């Protein structure tokens, strides 16, 4: 039996694909430039990851509150947990 994919999971997928594409483009441009411009592109890529984390966390929290943490919101809880893990790894990597 095939489970139904929730609409908010598809929205989250598009948010993630867009952020990942922008991150890859910024990293590629940053690696191919010299000087301070390279560092600026890398910081913009890092800001893209931070923005993705913020948007994902707010969106999934809104879904969980809207669904009152019932069974349909379990994918949102999983995505929110994974976003928290990514934020923790990013904070450790940055030395915060």
Describe what this molecule looks like in 3D.
It is a single chain. This protein has 96 residues and is mainly α. 81% of the residues lie in helices and 0% in strands. It contains three helices and no strands.
What percent of the residues sit in helical stretches (DSSP H or I)?
over 70%
Which percent range describes the beta-strand content?
under 5%
The number of helical runs is 3
SSE string, helices as H and strands as E: HHH
Low-confidence stretches: none
**How would a textbook summarize the main sheet?**
none
Q: Name the structural class.
A: mainly alpha
Head-to-tail CA distance between termini: 45 Å
**Which outline best applies?**
elongated
A few lines on this structure:
The chain has 96 residues and is mainly alpha-helical. Helix content is 81%, strand content 0%.
Helices, strands, pairings?
Layout (H helix, E strand, L loop, with lengths): L6 H25 L4 H32 L6 H21 L2
Keywords:
mainly alpha; about 100 residues; about 80% helix; elongated
